Amino acid sequence: MAVNSFVGNSAPTEINRAGYSAKTEINRSNVSASIDKNREFAAPGEVILDKYEIMDKLGVESGESILYLCKSEDKRYVAKIYCDTPPTDETVLERLGRIDSPYVAQIIERGVFKGLPVEITEFFQNGSLLKLKGRINDNPAMIKRIVSDLNEGLHSLHEAGIIHKDLKPSNIMISDDGKDAVIIDFGISLYVSKEERAVNASSDDLTPEFSAPETFDGIFWEGSDYYSLGMTLLWLAAGETPYEDDSREEIKKKALLYDIRIPQNISNSLAGLIKGLTYLDIKNRNNRDDLNNRWTYEEVKKWLKGMPNPVPPVREGAYTKFPRFVFNEKEYTSLEHLILGMNRYWEKAKEIVLDGSLAKHLHMSNPDISKALEDTVRDSKGKDDDMILFTALYKMNPGMKWFLWKGHTINGHIIRDLYALGMALMDAFRDGGGFRSPTLTEIIEKSVISEYIALTLGTGAPEYSALKSCEDRIATAQNEWELQYGMFILAYQLTGDKTIVYRRKIRPRRDGDELTAIPSDIVFRTTMDIIRYLQHVADSENENEFDRFVDFLGLENENGKFDPQFQAWIFKYNSTKAANI
Question: How far apart are CA 299 and CA 223, in angstroms?
Answer without folding.
Answer: 11
